[in-house]
Amino acid sequence: MIVATPCTNLVAQLQGSDTSEQLFLLNNQFKKDATRFEFTPKEELYWKELKRSKQSDKSNAGIIFQSLDNLQYVSGRVEEGLKAEAEVKQREEALAIERERGKTKGGRDDMNDLFGGGAEILLIQNGVNVFHIIASNSDKDEGTACRISGRVRVNKVKGDSVVITPAKGVDNLLAHFDGLFGAGMHGKNRVDTTNLSHRIEKLNFGTSIRGLLTPLAGTEQISLEGADEYRYFLKIVPTRIFHHGVFGGSTMTYQYSVTKTHKKVFDRRGHIHPAIVIHYEFAALVIEVHQLHLSLFQLLIRLCSMVGGIFACSSIMNSVFTRAFCLAGFQRLTKTSSNNDDSIHRRIIET
Asked: Domain Endoplasmic reticulum vesicle transporter C-terminal spans what residues (predicted)?
């Protein structure tokens, strides 16, 4: 996924039933790389081909889960091309960031170095003591977009979700307070300038199948105002495919359906904040797919049945046509015989 927001101003995390320690370990598996949201010429061609492959299948639009024969695939060079172009943009952006850091390296003071480029202090008072919460201001925004990737182990628990939100640390907390108590509480409001436009190249559960088009592949959302909330509700069904052969075995894969919602955050006083939320829920059932192969004996039986059916049908048709021809010939013969009898009778009378 590529989000049009710098990685230093973006938080990607799991929310669910895990403990904080487990969530901390899982969140570290998300990889964030600075990149550009704009397409390169080659990347745009690959993306258009992915969109065409996604939109070509209209016959199964109303089917939630597709059979194996109806699954859609895209050429492997499209996935490889998108990945290669993304890596090129990441390297170019990393070089640009290094050059920018070199220019501004001499402008920091000791306090900024202490807190990593700036700090914000939030004071919370409970009437007796004052608690000081100090969090990093997370440096200057680096890059123009962020590419989020990685593999994360998730639990099959209802209500878990992946949440991508702007700002982090104190910024995120103050933005939440701004939504509860009104805007203007936090002077440096990063949420107003955040753009949650995003593109999803691929999102799959379980073993990745090369070229397989998942429901979220090719998704593109452009936020004009920047303050938008995108939610994706995924219904996941485990599917076990059994293989026949010398080694046999089975493969567990997951297919899912998706429902999308989009809300615009016009009023900061409401309890809605800009975010990209992916809710996922695993179904309680498992679909098993068995591959059936015909043996030579079964093939011969089916061939004999086909030949016997053709012979029986031809015999019936032959009998019907023969009977029809016989009836037609008998009527013609009877009519000819009656005409001959009348002529003989007339001759006898004349005589």
From this structure: 138-317
